[in-house]
Amino acid sequence: MKLFDVYPLYPIEPVKGSGSWLWDEKGEKYLDLYGGHAVISIGHNHPHYNERITAQLTKLGFYSNAVQNSLQVALAEKLGKLSGYDDYQLFLCSSGAEANENALKLASFVTGKKKVIAMEKGFHGRTSGAVAATDNPNIVAPFNAGHEIVFVPMNDAEALEKAMDNEVAAIIIEGLQGVAGIYEPTAEYLASAKSLCESFGAKLILDEVQSGAGRTGHFFAHQSSGVTPDIITLAKGLGNGFPVGAVLIAPDIEPKHGMLGTTFGGNHLACAAALAVLEVIEQEKLMENAADLGEWLIEELGKVPAVKEVRGKGLMLAIELAQPVAELRKKLLFDYHIFTGSAGNKNTLRLLPSLAVTKAELTPFIKALKEALASV
């Protein structure tokens, strides 16, 4: 049997990690400024994270959601406290796509409707409903295309109001559009979406799968707007590499047995991993670090002559150039041993490092970027 070849792969195999660094099978060292798609939130191989998971594994690795699991209760309490949503309810699953799938399903359940308004250029995952709400026809199979989805330009309040009607179950918006190239919904736009949901009996879903877990300097990107959504989704950085997804649900949404379900979601190891991540974020003040370094990076990158625009917040940043960045990314990786990310906007380089990255680690990147730009 061979692998189903759906990924274009770099000829590099990381075999070891520590903090913001990776080593390949040849012993070559790389600076990781992409974190496996914003997953590595507290750094590779963090000792507290390793100890938490190892200790749990020696006790019990898994049992289903047919029994009580006090780790889920502890995780809900910790997540509520750190995020500021301690009055919300928590449903645990195993990925961001699964979190968004359950969020959309929940909104449909409680409103009795099925139409969804999503944002142009948005990305919510590759499962049935999540990919239908993703604005990329290339990854939507005919099987997924039967959902009632209306796409509108983000930050166009007039278009949103025009698309809204009594058949809409939910509006789904990323806290910060990641795959598209780091585009932010304005506070005014989120407030308008929330108001429309209240007027038409719909639910506002904030997809914080990539932008949550402290990445923007707030626990969730939308928290700088002052808008409170009905449902929030979270994954990626919550597990630091262990598959963890979460749906935060407003207290006025009533749960019913059988409404949602999962076999692996909220398992003992997943909870141990997520608890370790939240503990490290809090104890090491990583949200503050993300906010401070983000401001510094935006200022420093803005001084680079070839840089057209720097977008984002905290350690979720986009560097836009006047030309495609594919060759630049290759040069940074192969000549300077620095991992960076791409985006739907082909002229955009994405930075999604560990929230524990340091200024001393980022400074050589700025130097390498200037040199690489001069030669590409």
Strand order of the largest sheet: 4-10-9-8-7-5-6
Predict the CATH topology of the largest domain: Aspartate Aminotransferase, domain 2
CATH architecture annotation name of the largest domain:
3-Layer(aba) Sandwich
Please identify the top-level CATH class of the largest domain: Alpha Beta
The biggest sheet, with number of strands, parallel, antiparallel or mixed sense and barrel status, is: 7 strands, mixed
Structural class: alpha/beta
How many beta-strand elements?
14
Low-confidence stretches: none
Q: How many whole angstroms does the radius of gyration measure?
A: 20 Å
- So what's the overall shape? globular
What is the residue-averaged pLDDT? 97
Distance between the termini: 40 Å
| Residue share in β-strands | 15-25%
User: Helical content, roughly?
Assistant: 25-40%
| Assigned CATH superfamily of the largest domain | Type I PLP-dependent aspartate aminotransferase-like (Major domain)
Tally of DSSP helical segments: 11
Task: Give a quick set of tags describing it.
376 residues; alpha/beta; Aspartate Aminotransferase, domain 1; Aspartate Aminotransferase, domain 2; 2 domains; seven-stranded mixed sheet; four-stranded mixed sheet; 14 strands; 34% helix; Class-III_PLP-dep_AT; pyridoxal phosphate binding; Aminotrans_3
